[in-house]
Amino acid sequence: MIEAASSEERFYLYWTYNHLTGSWVQVEYLQTQLELAIAAQSYSDEEFLRAALRDQAQFVHWELGQAIDALEQNIPAVGRLNHLWINEALRSLLSEVRMTVYRLWADQCSRMQCAAGP
Fold it and tell me: For the chain, what is the domain count?
């Protein structure tokens, strides 16, 4: 899709891809943290891993919010392009993932003390 796009559209599509790759890496790392916490063999390991999971979830929640905001700020530029639906679909997906991450964070906070919400 990127290769077939005009130069203006190509820039937007590459920008979107590059911008969201960093956010998605953080989501994948959060998933790894969750799997490690589930597989913990001892109570102390689990507590340590769940604290890391809580902190990562808080960061990912913020990161996804930043990505959604960046996509929203690009709507005027996207309006001129034929790919507005991509922006809308990405914002919807990121919002759903962000809500899941928030629920994970809240679950971890119910297990341990949290100073402030994401």
Answer: 1
